[in-house]
Structure formats: C-alpha cells, structure tokens
Amino acid sequence: MPPLFPTQTTLQEIFATQSPFYQRSVRPQSPELSRNSQKDLFPAWSAIDDVKSKAGQLSDEAQREIHKASAAAQAKAGHIELYSPKY
C-alpha cells in the first residue's frame, strides 16, 4: 500500500522553488556559444536563413518596381497640389 502522505524529499523538491532563498544550480551559457551549438545541432536553420535572405531580396526588388511604377503614374498624371480642385 502506498504511503498516505508524501515523503520528505518529495515535499522538498516541490516547495523549494517557492522559497525566496532558492538558487538554481543551472549555469548561464554565453549567447554565442549556445547559438553556435544550436546551429550545429539543427542544420535546417541555415536553410531557413537562406530562405529569409531570398525573401528579403525579392521584397526589395518588388519595392523598387512599385516605386518605379508609381513614379511613372505620377509623371503621366502630373504633379497635383494637395488642396487644388484637381486633387
């Protein structure tokens, strides 16, 4: 028959994190070390970075085309003053 009450170690494990004096024993890692180790573990990230850079290039190219088309439309319509009757 299992015990009715939890053991001392179980109570200590559960309630130790609630104490203001509790200190974790985990050492913080430097961000570069963890990032490099993650890239080694997950090579798909480099593929994602490639896709992101290609998407950025396509976005820049699309913006240039939009500005070019906008400039052509403005040249065709002419300059319209803000509060003019033509506006």
Report strand %.
under 5%
Low-confidence stretches: none
Distance separating the two termini: 87 Å
Mean pLDDT: 77
Query: Over all CA atoms, what is the radius of gyration?
Result: 31 Å
**Helix amount, in percent?**
55-70%
Question: What can be said about the biggest beta sheet?
Answer: none
Summarize the helix and strand pattern as letters. Answer: HHH
Shape: elongated
What's the total number of strands?
0
Class from secondary-structure proportions: mainly alpha
The total count of helices amounts to 3
Which helices and strands occur, and which strands form pairs?
Layout lengths: L7 H8 L15 H11 L2 H34 L10
Plain-language structure description:
The protein is mainly alpha-helical and 87 residues long. The longest helix is centred in the last third of the chain and has 34 residues, at 44-77. Helices cover 61% and strands 0% of the residues. It has helices at residues 8-15, 31-41, 44-77.
List its salient traits.
mainly alpha
How would you summarize what this structure contains?
By secondary structure, the chain is mainly α.
